[in-house]
Amino acid sequence: MKNFFQRFIQSFPFIFSICIGFMIWHYSVIFFDMPSYILPKPALVWNALYDGLSQDPFARSSFWFHLADTLNATLMGFVIGGLVGLVGAAMMAESKMIETALLPYVVGLQSLPKVAIAPLLVIWFGYGIESKVAMAFVLTLFPVLINSLSGFRSFPRERIELMISLKATRWTTFRLIKFPSAMPMVFSGLNIGIVYAMLGTLVSEFSGGQKGMGVIMMQMQAVSDTAGVFAAMVVLGFTGYMLISLMRQLQKYLVFWMEEAEQGLGV
């Protein structure tokens, strides 16, 4: 009971801000007499949300049907992009020649407008899940690689000197010193990457998907179902929050020494 009360107190500002936001939204629509196809009332969005979530999960009009496909592509692209980014960063940190050879391509790919890349990926990989996975991979790769690269180079010099004095191999030094020291920065990249992966999946769905949250949002937009579009955005916002929360829980589990150090410093 005490823990529940403490959690309620901690989350009260967030709950209060949501209530105030809904009140402003509701009365703004009434005061300015906005038509529902421009800005629907919160009650209409709630009805659309309930309708989309209460349907048969295997029906094409259900949010669950499309969300499952979007999540599947997001997670696949995120895992592939995260692994490639992590391995690439490790190789670049250990070899200046590899960094000089590969980093310009990664930066150049990141500099390209993603709206222009998405149609090309659809042409190359088709309208199925492959193009969405590819887009999620592209957006995940850069933040994971750059943050991991910074992490692999941010290590205590005295520990490296100790490993040298012990005549440890390069792999042993990397495994025992560099990799653990880089974990906080690696997870910083992964936290950004999981959000970017979902954005990449949605961009691909907007460009030519057959199913997914981006597809159903485009269909709703075509018939001026603004309340349905808002409801879909609520689903995506909550899903993104849950993905970030899962990544943070995984970070606390794997990088437990970082949390203990912060508590020791009174952070």
Count of DSSP strands: 0
SS field, number of helical segments: 11
- SSE string, helices as H and strands as E: HHHHHHHHHHH
Q: How much strand?
A: under 5%
Task: Indicate the low-confidence ranges by residue numbers.
Answer: 260-267
Output mean pLDDT: 84
Shape: globular
C-alpha Rg (nearest Å)? 23 Å
| Class inferred from helices and paired strands | mainly alpha
Name the CATH homologous superfamily. Answer: MetI-like
CATH 2nd-level architecture: Orthogonal Bundle
Describe the structure.
With 267 residues, this protein is mainly α. The chain has one domain: MetI-like fold, CATH 1.10.3720.10. The protein has 11 helices and no strands. It is globular and about 75 Å long. It starts with a helix and ends with a helix.
Concise account of the structure shown:
The protein has about 270 residues and is mainly alpha-helical.
Per-chain topology:
Layout: H1 2-31, H2 42-54, H3 63-94, H4 96-111, H5 114-125, H6 129-152, H7 157-165, H8 170-208, H9 213-222, H10 226-254, H11 256-264
Helix pairs in contact: 2-10, 3-4, 3-6, 3-8, 3-9, 4-6, 5-6, 5-8, 6-8, 8-9, 8-10, 9-10, 10-11
